[in-house]
Amino acid sequence: MNVHHLELFYYVAKYGGVSSAARAMPYGIQQPAISSQVLQLEDVLGVALYQRRPFQLTREGQVLYESIEPFFGSLSEISNRLRGGGENRLRIASAEVVQRDYLPDLLLRMKRRVNGFHFTLTHGRQNDIEAMLVAQKIDVGLSTLMDQTMVNIESCELHRLPPVLIVPVKSTFTKASQIFEKDRIDLPLVSIDSNDALYRLFQTTLRQRGLEWLPSLEVGSLDLVVRYVAEGFGAGLALHHPRVEYPATVRVLDLPDFTPLSFGALWTGRMSPLLEAFLDEAQLLARNLG
Q: pLDDT category, 86, cuts 50, 70, 90?
């Protein structure tokens, strides 16, 4: 018998069907692939392992499931033990803005809640995070949620932040509409790079309004956007964050009709108790942000 086929059958039996198994798998695999490989297992054994509609294990399927469940059911625990206390460790990836404004408080909350909590942290945007989840390199990601998630990737929104423009405090602009009313926007735009979700969302709304305003300066972080604007190099695309105070050298212009940027968590497979605690604290923190 093929061990991989046995693993797929274990998930089908445990979660009551192929579609549920696909969502619970710790790595990405399509439903047709699961069905095909379980069929191969049935061919090898010469018996049907479950009734398809409605789902129900056959007698032979129940015997097989009870035989393999102790092994496959304990793999996560064994993996944690071999990693040296992995039951208290989370591998996290997050976007830059989350690392700066959100994650430190969340990690402190987890240290107070979970005795011996420790973590690893890497940087990534949504597409990077999803690839790391599929490769099982991380347990959870915190990122903007703009693109449709890959198959088997779960997500939940935690918070939304509206975009804003910032201009030098000496600027004559007091409302964003004064910029957009110009026949030709000749004010330099300072922005993070074009792959960032904030930039893409902003440009999408501009195009919907029939406007064109491409950045003159692309910088590596929102902190640098503020720095360049404060030095008088143009207007900057930023976020209204309740915990961030912009310096007195810049003025914040609201963008009330622009779509806010959604931030959330990404994971795959069944959540561990540690991940459940992490997401619980993340939601509590997000609600406190107002």
A: low
pTM score over 0.70: no
Q: Which amino acid is at 162?
A: P
Span 43-68, average pLDDT: 92
Written as one string, the DSSP assignment of 20-70 is: HHHHH-SS---HHHHHHHHHHHHHHHTS--EETTTTEE-HHHHHHHHHHHH
Q: How confident is the model at residue 102 (pLDDT cuts 50, 70, 90)?
A: confident
Question: What are the DSSP calls for 135-156, one per residue?
Answer: TTS-SEEEEE--SPPPTTEEEE
Which pair of tokens denotes residue 32?
A: 């047709």
* Terminal alpha carbon distance of the chain: 55
Cα three-residue angle 20-26-29, rounded to 5 degrees: 65
pLDDT band at residue 81 using 50, 70 and 90 as cut-offs: low
Q: Are strands 153-161 and 261-268 parallel, antiparallel or unpaired?
A: antiparallel
CA distance 112 to 155: 25
Token pair 């806010």: residue: 260
94: phi then psi, degrees, rounded to nearest 5? -155, 160
Q: How many CB atoms within 10 Å of residue 267? A: 20
**What are the chain's domains?**
3-73 (1.10.10.10), 84-159+262-289 (3.40.190.10), 163-259 (3.40.190.10)
Which stretch of DSSP H or E encloses residue 190? strand 189-192
The tens digit of pLDDT for each residue in 238-261 reads 998 877 789 999 999 999 989 999
Give the per-residue pLDDT at 80: 57
- Long-range interactions of 24-27: CB distance < 8 A, separation 24+: 24/269, 24/270, 25/152, 25/268, 25/269, 26/136, 26/268, 26/269, 26/270, 27/134, 27/135, 27/136, 27/152, 27/268, 27/269
